[in-house]
Amino acid sequence: MDSFTALADPTRRRIVEMLAQGALSAGEIGERFTVSAPAISQHLKTLREAGLVKVTVAGQRRIYTLDPEGIDAFDDWVRRVRAFWPDRLAALEAALLKPEPGEEA
Questions:
Q1: Helix 10-19 and helix 37-49: axis angle, to 10°?
Q2: What is the spatial distance between Cα 18 and Cα 21, in angstroms, rounded to a whole number?
Q3: Could you write out the DSSP letters of every residue in the chain?
Q4: How far apart are CA 60 and CA 44, in angstroms?
Q5: Residues 6+ positions from 8 with CB-CB distance below 8 Å
Q6: Which of 5, 15, 32, 52 has the greatest number of CB atoms lying within 10 Å of its CB?
Q7: How far is residue 76's CA from residue 3's CA, in Å, rounded to a whole number?
Q8: 77 in Cβ contact with 69 (< 8 Å)
Q9: What's the CA gap between 27 and 31, in Å, rounded?
Q10: Long-range contacts of residues 37-43, Cβ cutoff 8 Å, at least 24 apart
Q11: Residue 36 contacts residue 27 (beta carbons within 8 Å)
């Protein structure tokens, strides 16, 4: 699953937002939701497969963090798309400010 599909789910977006604040165990993540632990586990698996989070095992605990490479790839895409708009918006502004035929400039 790609990162866009993974982030289409609001629960997974919320998990990513939580992990942006720092590492959390699967249990700590699960405590913040009303869905079952197996459901949270599936969400974490999806995020891991999409390359957005990493997991490390510490004894019985699984600690999740954001995967910088996956987040950077997502951010790179957003930057490329965002770069499209300034020229288009400038052209739109120029067209809107251009006087109509017969109007004074």
A1: 80
A2: 6
A3: --HHHHTTSHHHHHHHHHHTT--EEHHHHHHTSSS-HHHHHHHHHHHHHTTSEEEEEETTEEEEEE-HHHHHHHHHHHHHHHHHHHHHHHHHHHHHHSPPTTS--
A4: 16
A5: none
A6: 15
A7: 12
A8: no
A9: 6
A10: 39/11, 40/11, 40/15, 43/9, 43/11, 43/12, 43/15
A11: no
Closest CA to 62 of 12, 19, 24: 24
Mean pLDDT of 73-102: 81
pTM of the model: 0.76
pLDDT in tens, 25-84: 999 999 999 999 999 999 999 999 999 999 999 999 999 999 999 989 888 888 888 877
Instruction: Determine contact, residues 97/55, Cβ cutoff 8 Å.
Output: no
Residue 54 CB partners (closer than 8 Å, separation 6+):
48, 64, 65, 66, 67
Extract the tokens encoding 90.
Answer: 């400038």
Q: Give 9's contacts (C-beta < 8 A, 6+ positions apart).
A: 43, 46
